[in-house]
Design brief:
Blueprint lengths: L1 H22 L21 E6 L4 H5 L1 H9 L3 E6 L9 H14 L7 E3 L15 H15 L3 E5 L8 H16 L7 E5 L4 H4 L6 H10 L4 E5 L3 H9 L7 H9 L5 E6 L5
Parallel strand pairs: 1-2, 1-4, 2-3, 4-5
Antiparallel strand pairs: 5-7, 6-7
């Protein structure tokens, strides 16, 4: 009987959390993250730096949906084609298809196939070169804000972690100008990662305590995460379907500001 009560309680919490997401729109951080007094202060050019096609759908859809909803202009820079299995060209096209679902113009999605940035565990990416490429994108598209993985990279993938080092390297080079804001997607522990919408409560609480350096973004359209990920047909196997269904990253993103010396 005890286990039955636990299961019922978890189901109730799950449904309550999902209702909170669907009915409460974006979250209290809507008034502060890239906005002023609850409204977009100006249209910003945001660069999302990812490692592989499908990163945007698996991990960043709450952020993408939030930013497009308030009128910001999103550019996606994907540092590899995800060619570990020899299907990089296919995965590249899948990213373009997913960007349509996520309402990111395809001409604002750039996928690199650089010999120094090939997909795979154990492949160390050149952070200085990555910083140069990010700088080129910033200059070419008048970027105001960068968003990428944090030092752990959600899954611990070495390519994700190298992105963080590269972005930090770029920021250190321009520390005197301070013209770019940079944010990282906060990695959570295993229990939170697979708690689905239930994680929103702790994420919101942490964001409140974190003041303006930590923002919680709820995904008012979680189904869009599933549909976007489904465009990556080469990757749409059973365990990724489960991931998108049960991952907290489908429902909420917590972004933390990257600061000099942090």
């Amino acid at each position: 009987m005890a286990w039955l009560m636990i299961v019922v309680s978890l189901n109730v919490i799950w449904l309550a959390s999902l209702c909170k997401i669907l009915l409460a729109s974006w979250s209290s951080s809507k008034a502060t993250f890239l906005t002023s007094s609850g409204e977009a202060s100006c249209k910003k050019n945001v660069l999302l730096v990812i490692a592989h096609p499908d990163d945007e759908s698996m991990f960043f859809t709450p952020t993408i949906n939030y930013l497009t909803s308030i009128g910001h202009n999103i550019h996606i820079l994907c540092m590899s084609t995800g060619n570990a299995d020899g299907i990089g060209n296919i995965r590249k096209e899948e990213l373009y298809q997913a960007s349509v679902i996520l309402k990111v113009p395809q001409h604002q999605v750039k996928v690199l196939d650089h010999p120094n940035f090939q997909d795979g565990f154990g492949r160390v990416w050149d952070c200085d070169l990555l910083a140069e490429i990010v700088s080129e994108e910033i200059n070419a598209n008048s970027i105001d804000t960068i968003i990428t993985f944090d030092r752990y990279g959600v899954s611990g993938h070495c390519n994700h972690r190298d992105l963080n080092r590269g972005v930090r390297s770029r920021l250190l080079r321009s520390a005197l100008q301070r013209e770019i804001d940079a944010w990282e997607l906060v990695s959570t522990n295993l229990w939170r990662k697979y708690s689905g919408p239930i994680d929103i409560w702790l994420s919101i609480l942490n964001a409140i305590k974190g003041s303006d350096k930590l923002h919680c973004l709820l995904n008012a359209q979680p189904r869009r995460s599933y549909v976007a990920m489904a465009q990556h047909l080469s990757q749409w196997v059973w365990f990724r379907k489960l991931f998108v269904s049960f991952s907290s990253y489908t429902f909420v993103n917590t972004l933390q500001k990257i600061e000099e010396g942090f």
